[in-house]
Structure formats: structure tokens, C-alpha cells
Design goal:
Blueprint lengths: L2 H16 L8 E5 L2 E6 L2 H6 L3 H9 L2 E6 L7 H11 L6 E7 L4 E6 L2 H5 L4 H10 L2 E6 L6 H12 L1 H15 L10 E7 L8 E5 L4 E4 L17 H5 L7 E3 L5 H4 L2 H6 L6 E3 L1 H20 L8 H9 L1 E3 L6 E4 L2 E7 L7 E7 L4 E5 L23 E5 L12 H17 L4 E4 L5 H14 L8 E4 L2 H10 L6 H8 L11 E3 L3 H10 L4 E4 L8 H9 L6 E4 L8 H6 L4 E4 L14 E4 L3 E4 L9 H9 L7 E5 L3 H15 L2 E3 L6 E4 L1
Parallel strand pairs: 2-3, 5-6, 9-10, 10-11, 11-12, 16-17, 17-26, 18-21, 18-22, 19-20, 19-21, 22-25, 26-27
Antiparallel strand pairs: 1-2, 4-5, 7-8, 7-28, 8-9, 13-14, 14-15, 15-16, 23-24
Helix pairs in contact: 4-6, 12-13, 12-16, 18-19, 21-22
Length: about 650
């Protein structure tokens, strides 16, 4: 008998000894990080409200209780019984029964009412029908991404259970080494912005944190081929952890499955959905631009199938010697500071991913309170000595001034924005400004993936800032549903009509002017001196956005389609006559002071900091400042460096 099987036998015996004699345990399995207990007495389990909580605390494991399939009431009967328990105002839109696991997935407009106080309604459902309820939110804005992900995972339930059982056995396998060390190897985003990727390794475990591309630099990918990463084979990696869905952190995760990786991806649920949306668009843009995509869409589906979503604050075993906890990073929807507890108190490492330290309209500020952190890997995008962003209130005032001036001269306001994060922030600022009369009410056109990304935001309001979440939850005042927002879905013809029409605001991807619909808008509006192009997000070195920001008034435009030989047609140039403004303060990244404050107020403060994900001067400036200010060991590593801790 393997060690894992022996563990499960011991756990089964321990659980049975703790349960009342009239509650049976028919099987105990690992599924991913969870321990699943099967019983013929689910209703009795549900009546003992604290039983599962007490067992989880005693065994120090996440526990799910499921009924044996042969004790379940028929779905037809259970359907009406479930609805009878749930308050009508919960707005149940679908019930989906899965007899193989004894779960009923309840989709509702107000999931909190299905859950009940401290899970009381969920327990009542199980007491009534025996089925184990799982609750998901009905998106207030219909989202093809959320719908597709949910339907895909439903179709793949059997294979996904096999994946989870395999992952569970890997997590709880026997430790093989007596050595103790912790190492971090940098595979990208050091002294540069983009292609984030790190390997965290111990004698037992190898974990890849992020795997992104580099905006504006085709072909520059993380150093995955080295021995520390995929050089020894893709399945020498035990787990992948994704801090957030932006492509400079997530674009190349599906490539791992092309190379043979078959393990788990840990991230938040909204990051999983956004990851799929952005990766599929990444492939679409590559195809439209005549570039060979690095992987097929099938690999995106593999990544989603292997994703194990975690909630903020859940301490989760992801390897025999590693526990992972995700915390809000304040950057974009679902973004996470990833905290790794290694060994039995041996060492603790936190990867910031991208962070915003202060509250924004969209999110609460980044969490920096941990039980222990010896080493922090910290983003430095705005870590330079002069990287101080404008106060957000001042930024909003400047944006409103630009909009009013442009409106008065009869022009359009064109804002290139990331589909995820900055666009929703802009929507909130603009909606409030129109509601309060600070700017005239006019159409706000959303182009590219912005509408779909917004729909995903409204699906997960629990990840938004407290007061915004409450507006969506309780006050029925979802600002994203304001009448002035228009989804551009009529392509080039609709863009031309908007460009020829009355004053309007246009939010369009891509945020760094590296392709996508923003190029079409520049073609329509670039020659118009009454139009204003407003940059509200970071423009990386080498991108067209940075060049326009720096004063270029003539830009290359690939106006012709690909020829029969597959090559792009001739390039023309476009003379820009529109006004160009930069409004700082809306970035999803902390500025220099925010980064310093993040470290200053960390509890506990780390012993070492690795400054990454910033231009060379930014990482070195921040590293030097942290060293002088807090007397800690700091580094501005290059790519392909390895640091040993312990």
C-alpha cells in the first residue's frame, strides 16, 4: 500500500472515530487540495452544522462531504424541493444535478441568499434532498466567457475529477529528501517589464510562478528551456501559480501543456476566466497579424481544465512541503499576492505579482499582512526615484477637464485601455462624472474585449472594492449597466459611424497601441485636430503607445491585408493631428511611494527583497531605496539568476 493510500485509510478511521455512530463514511479521497468524504447519511451530516468545521480544524485539511450516489433523491423530485428551500428573491436561474458526485450546481442572481447566514440555507438544502449544493452567480451582464468556461468544465467533469485525484495524490506523496533549501530562479521580467516567470524550488518541489509574454517585443519569451524550468522535462514542475491574468504574466501558460505539462494551475476564479479570455484573444491577434501562434486554442482549454481556483485567504497544500495562500493585490480583478509557506516553518516567500497599495475605485488596496515572510519578490514598474503618480482625485479632475474641452470643440475622446482593469476604472469615473453633471452625458463606446471583461467583473463582485460590491449586491445600482455605455459590436462600419458622429468617449483595446481596434480608431480619428488621445495606463518601452506619448506624430499603419503568400502587405504611415494627453494616477500599479509604503507597513517586514518587473533603472532605484530606508538586503536581479535561501 502506498503512503497516500495508507494516509487515506488512517484519515477514514480517524473521521469515523469522531462521528456519531449513526453517520457512515463509505469512502475518503483526495481531490486536489481537498479531502472528500463520501457518506450514505448526508442529511445527518447537514443537521450537525459544526461537524465538518470541527473535522477540518482537527485534521487541518479542507473537507468536502458528498453523498453516495445511490442514496440521492431523483433529480426531478429534488429540483422542486431545492427551490422550495431557497428564497424566491435569490433569483435562481438554473439547477444542474450531477449524480456522479452528488452535487447540485445552483446558479442564482443573488448567491448570498442561496448560501444563507453561515451556510444555513445550504445545510437546509442537504437536509431536505441529500444533494451537496454548489452555488455560482448568474452574470448581471451576459458573459460568453463565463458561460463557455462553466459549460466546458461541466462537459469535462469526469476527466477533471481524474486530474484532481492525481493532483491530490501528488500533493500528499511521501517526501523523499532529507535536504532543506529554498531557491528562486528568475526566468523573465528582471530589469524589464513583461515575460514574468520564476521557479520556486525545494528538494521536493518545483513551482512555476507566472509565465507571460513581453508587450511590444515579439519572440522574447521567458527562459523556459533552462534545466531549472522545462529543461529537465515539463512534468518536473509540480504546480503553476498565476498571480493575475494580464498577458505579461499569463500568455504562455498554455505552452506548458504543449510541452507535456499535466499538473495544476492555482489562481483565483476570476483570474481563470480572464486568463482564458485574454489567451484566446492573444491567438486571434497573432493570426490577424500573420504571426504563427505559439500554441493552439486546445491548449487554452487544457489550462482551464487543470486550473484549481482558490479564494483569498485560504491556506492550501499544493505540494508535500508547500502551502499557498493568495491575498488581494489590488491590481486587477482576481489579482493575488502569492504567499508560500515552505516546510514545517522552514521559510516563507511572497510574490507580489503586480500590486496597487492604495484603494482604487475598483479594488481594496493590496494586502501585506502575513504570518511570516523572509523574502519578498516585489514588482518595480514604477519604482524609479521620480515615479510618483498624480493623486487619483487630481487625475480624475484632469480627465474631466480634457473631456469637457474636447466636447466643447466637438471632438471625440479616445482612450486606449487594457480590457481588464483600467477600462472598468474609467467606466466608473465617467459614469459618476456624468451622473453628477461634471461632464456632459454622451455615448461611451467600448471596443475590443472591454464589454466582455466588464461582464466578468460583474460576475465576481465579491472581488471588488467593498462599497462598489455593496452597490452591486444590495442597492441594485450596478454602475456598469448605465445607459450611456455602448458595446461596439458592428465592426468597422459602426466605428466609422461613431467617428463621423457627435462628440463621444471611446475606450478601446489595446492599451499600449500594439494592435487591435485602437489602430482602426487612430485611422479614423488620427487626422482630426478636435479629437484627443488620452493615455491613462503604462506604456512599455518599444510600444507604439510609448512612441506617441513621446511625441511621434507620424506612425506606421499596415492598411492592406495579407497577400496570397501569407506576408503582410505594404506599410503606410499616418499623420496624427489629434491632441495627445497623459493622465497619470489611474495605473493599476503602485507608484514609488506606494511600493515603499507596501514594504514599510508589511507585517512582518521581510529580510530580503528582490526588485523585479521594472526597467533597469526602476529596479535598481527601488532596490537602493529599500536598502537605505529599511536596512534590509535588496537585489535587482538579472534574468537567469538563482538565489538560495536557507
Amino acid at each position: 500500500m502506498s503512503k497516500v493510500d495508507q494516509q487515506l485509510e488512517d484519515l477514514r478511521a480517524e473521521i469515523k472515530s469522531e462521528l456519531p455512530s449513526d453517520i457512515s463514511v463509505s469512502d475518503v479521497k483526495y481531490e486536489g487540495p481537498e479531502l472528500v468524504v463520501y457518506t450514505r447519511d448526508p442529511k445527518k451530516f447537514a443537521r450537525n452544522g459544526d461537524l465538518i468545521r470541527r473535522l477540518a480544524s482537527q485534521l487541518r485539511k479542507r473537507i468536502t462531504v458528498r453523498p453516495d450516489p445511490d442514496v440521492l433523491s431523483p433529480p426531478g423530485t429534488a429540483h422542486d424541493d431545492v427551490l422550495a428551500v431557497i428564497p424566491e428573491e435569490a433569483g435562481v436561474t438554473d439547477l444542474d444535478f450531477h449524480a456522479d458526485t452528488g452535487e447540485v450546481v445552483i446558479e442564482a442572481e443573488k448567491p448570498g441568499m442561496v448560501i444563507g447566514k453561515h451556510g444555513s440555507t445550504l445545510r437546509e438544502i442537504t437536509q431536505e434532498v441529500g444533494w451537496t449544493p454548489e452555488v455560482v452567480r448568474t452574470p448581471p451582464i451576459e458573459s460568453s466567457t463565463v458561460s463557455n468556461v462553466r459549460n466546458f468544465l461541466k462537459q469535462e467533469r469526469d476527466e477533471r475529477r481524474s486530474i484532481l485525484e492525481k493532483v491530490g495524490r501528488q500533493i500528499h506523496r511521501e517526501e523523499m529528501s532529507d535536504e532543506e533549501y529554498v531557491r528562486i530562479t528568475t526566468l523573465g521580467c528582471c530589469r524589464e517589464v513583461g515575460r514574468a516567470a520564476f521557479i520556486l524550488s525545494t528538494p521536493e518541489t518545483r513551482i512555476l510562478i507566472d509565465c507571460g509574454d513581453k508587450p511590444g517585443a515579439e519572440g522574447e519569451v521567458p527562459y523556459l528551456q533552462v534545466e531549472e524550468a522545462l529543461g529537465a522535462g515539463a512534468n518536473t514542475i509540480d504546480a503553476v501559480v498565476l498571480t493575475h491574468a494580464h498577458l505579461d504574466h499569463s500568455a504562455l501558460i498554455p505552452l506548458l501543456f504543449k510541452y507535456g505539462y499535466d499538473g495544476p494551475i492555482y489562481t483565483t476564479e476570476p483570474s481563470r476566466d480572464l486568463m482564458g479570455l485574454l489567451q484566446l484573444d492573444y491567438l486571434d491577434v497573432a493570426a490577424k497579424e500573420g504571426r504563427a501562434p505559439p500554441y493552439e486554442s486546445e491548449m487554452v482549454r487544457e489550462a482551464i481544465k487543470h486550473t484549481i481556483p482558490l479564494e483569498y485567504g485560504d491556506v492550501t497544500d499544493i505540494a508535500p512541503d508547500v502551502k499557498l495562500t493568495l491575498h488581494n493585490a489590488g491590481h486587477i480583478l482576481g489579482s493575488a499576492v502569492s504567499h508560500f509557506h515552505i516546510g514545517d516553518g522552514l521559510y516563507n516567500v511572497a510574490f507580489s505579482g503586480d500590486i496597487h497599495y492604495d484603494d482604487t475605485r475598483l479594488f481594496n488596496g493590496a494586502v501585506n499582512d502575513f504570518p511570516r515572510v523572509e523574502t519578498l519578490v516585489l514588482e518595480s514598474t514604477y519604482g524609479g526615484r521620480n515615479d510618483y503618480q498624480t493623486d487619483q482625485e487630481d487625475s480624475e479632475e484632469k480627465l474631466k477637464e480634457v473631456i469637457n474641452e474636447t466636447y466643447e470643440q466637438g471632438g471625440k475622446v479616445l482612450i486606449p485601455a487594457f480590457a481588464v482593469g483600467r477600462s472598468q476604472e474609467m467606466m466608473l469615473v465617467i459614469e459618476e462624472a456624468m451622473r453628477s453633471g461634471d461632464i456632459p452625458t454622451m455615448p461611451v463606446h467600448l471596443d475590443g474585449m472591454i464589454w466582455e471583461a466588464t461582464a466578468i467583473h460583474t460576475t465576481y463582485p465579491e472581488y471588488l472594492r467593498d462599497d462598489l460590491r455593496d452597490r452591486i449586491f444590495h442597492e441594485d445600482e450596478n454602475p456598469f449597466l448605465a445607459d450611456q455605455f455602448n458595446h461596439i459590436d458592428g465592426g468597422e462600419e459602426e466605428r466609422r459611424d461613431v467617428a463621423d458622429g457627435d462628440p463621444a468617449i471611446i475606450l478601446s483595446t489595446s492599451g499600449m497601441v500594439t494592435g487591435g481596434p485602437i489602430m482602426s480608431w487612430l485611422e479614423h480619428l488620427g487626422p482630426d485636430p478636435d479629437t484627443t488621445l488620452v493615455f491613462v495606463g503604462y506604456q512599455a518601452q518599444g510600444t507604439l503607445g510609448r512612441r506617441i506619448q513621446n511625441g511621434w506624430d507620424e506612425i506606421p499603419m499596415n492598411r492592406s491585408r495579407r497577400g496570397s503568400n501569407g506576408r503582410s502587405g505594404r506599410n503606410n504611415t499616418l499623420k496624427l493631428k489629434l491632441g495627445v494627453e497623459t493622465v497619470d494616477g489611474f495605473s493599476g500599479h503602485a507608484d514609488r511611494q506606494g511600493l515603499m509604503n507596501f514594504v514599510k507597513t508589511m507585517s512582518p517586514r521581510p529580510e530580503k527583497v528582490l526588485c523585479v518587473h521594472g526597467d533597469e533603472s526602476s529596479t535598481q532605484d527601488l532596490s537602493s531605496a529599500l536598502y537605505h530606508e529599511f536596512n534590509m538586503r535588496t537585489f535587482a536581479p538579472k534574468n537567469l539568476e538563482t538565489f538560495r535561501f536557507k
